[in-house]
Amino acid sequence: MWKVYALLAALFAALTAIFSKMGVKDVDSNLATAVRVTFILALTWGIVIFTGVAGRVKELSGHTLLFLFLSAVATGLSWLFYFKALQLGEVSRVAPIDKLSVPLAMILAALLLHEPLGLKAVAGGLLITLGSLLLLL
């Protein structure tokens, strides 16, 4: 089932690039990011409330909150830079460069989480990197 979710994430990430490019056309990219985050906040809290798990927020440990905070900082910075890049560049060039996050995440997961990096993963990561570099030229 995780593969279905991953494919849906990829689909919506692609739509994010297109809609974001259209959304930052005539507005400051930082303001556009803040507005986007506000919409995401409303959507995600709506889902949490609708599914009935909002009350479980008090169960979150300090460790969990720390890493969710760090993830939020990383996400916010990623989005700010992504929106600025989309405002200045073409989606067909920005999006593949942004996807260098895939091999970077694989490397960091191996180093920090001790996840295995098999031959297929290394080859796939290298192909993503080479594809991104090719699109830069």
Account of the 3D structure:
With 137 residues, the chain is an all-alpha fold. 80% of the residues lie in helices and 0% in strands. The protein contains six helices and no strands.
Short description:
The chain is mainly alpha-helical. It has 6 helices and no strands.
Parts with pLDDT < 50 across at least 5 consecutive residues: none
Indicate the percent of residues in helices: over 70%
Distance separating the two termini: 37 Å
Rg is 17 Å
Q: Compute the number of helices.
A: 6
Report the average pLDDT across residues. Answer: 92
Q: Secondary-structure element order, as H and E?
A: HHHHHH
Layout of strands and helices, then pairs:
Blueprint: H1 2-23, H2 29-50, H3 62-88, H4 91-98, H5 101-112, H6 119-136
Helix pairs in contact: 2-3, 4-6, 5-6
Key descriptive features of the protein:
137 residues; mainly alpha; 6 helices; 80% helix
